[in-house]
């Protein structure tokens, strides 16, 4: 093997790793302890042919020699065994008590094997018997002893460095000046997928992703070959083909002459960090864009919801988004975006088979990065919908759970990236809850204003007619010789006024949402209400015994108004039937029926001279208050049939959304 001789006379392998070599010995300050041979020792160093500069500092006794050591004035101690105040071994021990690696060389009378043994046991660096030949070689032996001691220190330090590099979290790669890899640490293996055996001997271009052109690498090599450090982020490629972003520092290692011998590269994988930063930026853009949409007063809530879901899919990079309403242990999808055959407007699923059952059970958004690799893989929600990644937040309206806002996809996502989106989705869910609450309030206000308009119409028009009749009859009675014949007309007008007032108040009260509901037997309730019908020839028939969840007081108003409507518009022997349907219940009669294209539920509508025109409006309001829909069709006998769909509760909960996409 070729070798080079250092300035201190030490041979090292040619081209060896300079990081593994101890610094050369260029000069030495020697502390000589002893009264005898001081001049001879100085002469020996002066006569040395080594290219090492020697400076000898004398101390006559052991305490003075310790002073040189303690003050840091010398690089090593050369001591006689016999000293005025102590032995050379005692001096050695006191030095070793302070520094285990400081060079101490002992000069003793030749043949003192016992002294040599004791000195070695005490940790002497070298033991030199005193004779003429030994003084001649003293500079070389002392220099060699100091070098060996320094080599030991360097080796210990190197071992520590190697251990640190081996256990470093960052990837470390060492190459020669041609770029051939000589060493990689375990972190490199884990980061890149290349084992040490597969990497050593190859070029770092095995990590090249193609994201940079040749001019980039020319600039890199020009920088490090010039002895300067290169630091920049780069997109590399793992053995698997997956790309990653690395913060890379390449530092040249030079020898004493400043010649670049090797390169040390350190890489830190910042892929996740950069993705997080990108996602944070996208989240900020999302909220900014959402604000522009939600502040647009020309859009309805349904249109805003559609836009927000589309924006969320685009900026959050999740292909599916939907809003749900949770009621009666059922998930109702009220808005959806994305291509998923089970996630679309109007779809319903039992809550126990959905992700939302766990979403509404916690304060913070639910995050699932890969359902297929977690406990979710056997969950009914994953089995049904197949969303491997999911991010959903609870939507609260006026302090109660309305439903959820959800985003997801059929491919897994990085958990840390999804976690950064939690606050964004929670903010969107809070906005949605606020908008629904505001829209509900506006809807209620609109309905209230509609009722006020109705009341104004009643006061200005409907009450004026019977009042005019009563006043006219009263005038005739005063002028007539037989006033009693006009009293019946006045009484009828007053009764008409009383009916209108009573129905108007009922309409006002029943415009509110119901509060308490319970299981109601329509058989019992209808029978009780039928007792108020004044025509004894009329007949009530009950088919089965429908059971519904309702406010019994409100439902009584439904039956009373429909029974009165059947009697007032039909025959005295009219037959009214109450029965069950697949969706709810019905009330039918065998009267004349309802004219085509007639809005029977419009306030003030009546074909009877004695009716107020508000009975069927009251029926519709009570149905809406329960969340039902009511329609009128022709009965089997040609009369009117009112059908109540108690399963269609969309109008009540979606009345503030008014959304059908």
Automatic annotation (TrEMBL):
Domain PAS span(s) in chain numbering: 157-203
Q: What CDD domains has UniProt attached to this entry? A: HATPase (cd00075), HisKA (cd00082), PAS (cd00130), REC (cd00156)
Query: Where's the PAC domain?
Result: 228-282
The catalysed reaction is: ATP + protein L-histidine = ADP + protein N-phospho-L-histidine
- Biased region (Basic and acidic residues) positions are 649-661
Which PROSITE patterns does the protein's record reference?
Answer: HIS_KIN (PS50109), PAC (PS50113), PAS (PS50112), RESPONSE_REGULATORY (PS50110)
For region Disordered, the annotated ranges are: 642-661
SUPFAM superfamilies given in the database record: ATPase domain of HSP90 chaperone/DNA topoisomerase II/histidine kinase, CheY-like, GAF domain-like, Homodimeric domain of signal transducing histidine kinase, PYP-like sensor domain (PAS domain)
Recorded protein name is: histidine kinase
Q: What organism does the UniProt record list as the source?
A: Halovenus salina
């Amino acid at each position: 093997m070729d070798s080079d001789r250092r300035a201190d006379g030490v041979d090292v392998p040619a081209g060896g790793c300079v990081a593994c070599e101890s610094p050369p010995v260029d000069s030495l300050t020697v502390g000589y302890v002893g009264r005898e041979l001081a001049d001879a020792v100085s002469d020996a160093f002066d006569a040395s042919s080594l290219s090492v500069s020697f400076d000898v500092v004398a101390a006559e006794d052991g305490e003075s020699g310790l002073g040189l050591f303690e003050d840091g004035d010398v690089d090593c101690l050369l001591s006689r065994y016999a000293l005025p105040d102590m032995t050379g071994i005692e001096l050695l021990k006191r030095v070793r008590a302070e520094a285990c690696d400081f060079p101490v060389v002992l000069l003793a009378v030749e043949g003192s094997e016992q002294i040599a043994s004791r000195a070695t046991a005490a940790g002497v660096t070298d033991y030199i018997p005193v004779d003429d030949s030994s003084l001649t070689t003293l500079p070389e032996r002392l220099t060699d002893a100091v070098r060996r001691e320094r080599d030991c220190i360097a080796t210990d330090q190197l071992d520590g460095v190697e251990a640190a590099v081996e256990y470093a979290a960052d990837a470390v790669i060492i190459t020669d000046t041609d770029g051939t890899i000589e060493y990689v640490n375990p972190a490199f293996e884990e980061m890149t997928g290349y084992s040490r055996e597969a990497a050593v001997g190859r070029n770092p271009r095995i990590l090249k992703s193609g994201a940079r052109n040749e001019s980039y690498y020319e600039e890199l090599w020009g920088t490090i070959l010039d002895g300067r450090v290169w630091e920049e982020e780069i997109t590399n490629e793992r053995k698997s083909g997956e790309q990653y972003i690395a913060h890379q520092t390449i530092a040249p290692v030079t020898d004493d002459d400043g010649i670049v011998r090797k390169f040390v590269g350190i890489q830190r994988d910042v892929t996740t960090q950069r993705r997080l930063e990108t996602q944070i930026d996208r989240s900020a853009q999302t909220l900014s864009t959402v604000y522009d949409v939600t502040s647009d007063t020309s859009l309805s809530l349904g249109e805003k919801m559609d836009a927000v879901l589309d924006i969320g899919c685009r900026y959050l990079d999740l292909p599916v988004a939907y809003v749900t309403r949770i009621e009666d242990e059922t998930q109702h999808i009220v808005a959806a975006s994305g291509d998923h055959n089970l996630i679309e407007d109007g779809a319903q699923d039992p809550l126990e088979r959905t992700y939302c059952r766990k979403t509404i059970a916690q304060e913070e958004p639910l995050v699932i990065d890969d359902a297929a690799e977690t406990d979710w893989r056997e969950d009914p929600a994953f089995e049904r919908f197949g969303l491997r990644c999911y991010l959903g937040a609870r939507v609260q309206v006026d302090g109660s759970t309305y439903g959820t806002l959800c985003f997801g996809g059929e491919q897994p996502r990085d958990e840390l990236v999804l976690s950064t989106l939690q606050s964004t989705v929670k903010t969107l869910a809070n906005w949605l809850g606020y908008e629904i609450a505001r829209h509900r309030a506006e809807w209620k206000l609109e309905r209230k204003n509609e009722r006020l308009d109705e009341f104004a119409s009643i006061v200005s028009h409907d009450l004026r007619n019977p009042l005019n009749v009563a006043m006219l009859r009263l005038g005739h009675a005063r002028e007539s010789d037989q006033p009693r014949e006009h009293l019946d007309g006045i009484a009828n007008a007053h009764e008409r006024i009383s009916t209108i007032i009573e129905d108007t108040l009922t309409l006002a009260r029943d415009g509110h949402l119901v509060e308490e509901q319970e299981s109601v037997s329509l058989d019992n309730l209808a029978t009780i209400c039928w007792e108020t019908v004044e025509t004894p020839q009329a007949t009530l028939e009950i088919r089965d015994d429908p059971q519904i969840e309702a406010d019994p007081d409100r439902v009584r108003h439904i039956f009373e108004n429909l029974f009165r409507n059947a009697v007032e518009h039909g025959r005295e022997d009219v037959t009214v039937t109450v029965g069950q349907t697949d969706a709810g219940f019905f009330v039918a009669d065998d009267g004349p029926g309802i004219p085509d294209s007639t809005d029977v539920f419009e306030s003030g509508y009546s074909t009877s001279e004695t009716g107020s025109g508000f009975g069927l409006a009251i029926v519709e309001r009570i149905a809406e208050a329960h969340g039902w829909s009511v329609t009128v069709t022709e009965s089997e006998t040609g009369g009117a049939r009112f059908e109540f769909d108690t399963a269609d509760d969309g109008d009540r909960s979606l009345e503030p959304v008014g959304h059908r996409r």
